[in-house]
Amino acid sequence: MPRNAEVIRQWTILREIERARAGGVTIDELAARCDVTTRTIRRDLQALEEAGFPLFDDRSHDDGKTRWRVNGQAFKGLAAGLTVSELCALYFSRTLLESLSGTPFRDDVESAFEKLASVLTPHMRQFLDHLPRVLATKADPMRKRGGDAAHQRLVARTLEATLQMRQATITYHSKASDRTKVYHLHPYRLAYAQGGLYLLAYVPEYGEVRTFAVDRIQDLSILEERFTPIEDLPDAAFPHSLGVHSGPPERVEIAFEPAVADYVLAREWHPSQQVRTREEDEGGVVVTLDVCLDRALQSWILSFGPFARVVSPPSLARDIAEQLAEARARYAS
Predict the structure, then answer these.
(1) pLDDT tens string 224-254
(2) Distances from the Cα of 72 to the Cα of 59, 67, 124, 150, 221, angstroms
(3) All domains of the chain in start order, with CATH
(4) pLDDT greater than 90 at residue 30
(5) Are 26 and 62 in contact (CB under 8 A)?
(6) Fewest 10 Å CB contacts: which of 107, 155, 247, 279?
């Protein structure tokens, strides 16, 4: 635990010095911000210098105080505009490569991180390697690890068709209908969400953009014909869904009991959310969302059990009530 606190504090010191830019920051100011003694700050600065971070102190001619600064030119040859903390953050984020498992980007990104690591000194890498001990992520249980060579080739072809705006045909197994069908489509975008890759493609047969889970694409053939997109996709993937659905948004109101109000208020479940207190009881809240009525929304509401009630729309309230009644009947037996 003491080592964790030390690493976090030293990372904070590095960022505070860099944030001060040319003005620098004094040891007294760092001690006040980290709530430790100046002696501790001096030890931390020495440790950072020994790790290879380009820090230096300089006495001001104006007030005679010594301020610490970072040499922003130390990694100028790597990439224009990268700061030291940005460089370190990129190195640390190499752990996120797991999310690219099975995609054609993995090898290229791994190569980029190898070059990035070669710029850092061994002591700097050793310092940064302590960060995963104090900042951890939980693996996505839905993510399939790895992926065989055939799947990776299929993903690569999907990306190729998307980049070249080439029409394609896919053999796809729909989980909803439990049947396999061949689709002729215009691949618009590959999106990574909730541990999986999804293809957003315009289907001329239906005259709309549909979402296909790449894991359920059995085969993809790239055609010679190209296409011109006739529909602009939003910048964000699945912006109207709590999951991976692309349907139109509807106004949804959900009343939450006081027992879960703090938990609900502590997070932003969707950018459109608005929250107001419930007039009929003290401590309860009503959350308004503009989202599509998909399985992800229903699962989220059901996860609160008896502490959530759909106010509107009526169709969603009926669906949730029917699912709760069915679940109750299963337990009754």
Answers:
(1) 998 888 877 777 778 899 888 878 899 999 9
(2) 18, 15, 16, 45, 49
(3) 1-136 (1.10.10), 149-226 (2.30.30), 250-332 (3.30.70)
(4) yes
(5) no
(6) 279
